[in-house]
Amino acid sequence: MLRSLGSAGGKAVPARLISQFPPGTVKLSFTAMSKTGNMPGMKYGTKAIKDAKLELWPNPNPDRDYVIDISYPEFTCLCPRSGYPDFATIGITYTPDKKVVELKALKLWLNSFRDQSISHEAVTNLVFDILKKQLKPRKLEVVGDFNVRGNVKTVIKVAM
User: Same domain for 77 and 138?
Assistant: First the structure.
């Protein structure tokens, strides 16, 4: 993919405006871009999401039962049938045992699903399974509250 940019009289001209100049007055230049439309090299956010891994911390109060309730309202993945984006709020409620999840790492890890083709049911169960395996919480519930699409609203609840 190429990104075009012109210059006229030493000033940059965005590609969308080039046609407004008389022929021969704009010098064109092209820059190679990635398939996603970004300039070469990965942006820091894209790299952080690509490298995302859950990070666990020691529970500061393992002798006490308490509830951690996390809401992640910007979850996205792709419909495995159409390829259209699905938007959801992922709710995670757990009673920790020896470990708690670090929130920024969780956010980045949840962002890593944005380009994955996966059903509502599969992604909600996958988030549950991975958190259950890594955290080993006393209690855990994961809710995938998916936005309406095609006049259908889906809420998936997985709990132990």
Answer: yes
End-to-end CA distance of the chain: 48
Return d(Cα 134, Cα 105) in angstroms, integer.
13
| Catalytic (active site) residue 86 | yes
Q: Examine the domain organization and report whether 63 and 27 are in the same domain.
A: no
- Shared-domain flag, residues 56 and 118: yes
pTM: 0.74
Question: Exactly one of 51, 77, 86, 129 is catalytic; which is it?
Answer: 86
**Structure-block tokens of residue 121:** 């049911």
Separation between Cα atoms, residue 82 and residue 70, nearest integer Å: 29
* 68 in a structural domain: yes
- Domain with 108, as residue range(s), is 51-159
Q: For 30-58, what is each residue's pLDDT tens digit?
A: 555 556 555 567 788 888 888 889 999 99
* Given the residues 51, 69, 79, 145, the one annotated as active site: 79
* Same-domain check for residues 9 and 82: no
Q: Which residue has the higher pLDDT, 152 or 12?
A: 152
Range scoring the smallest mean pLDDT among 24-28, 105-109, 116-120, 138-142:
24-28
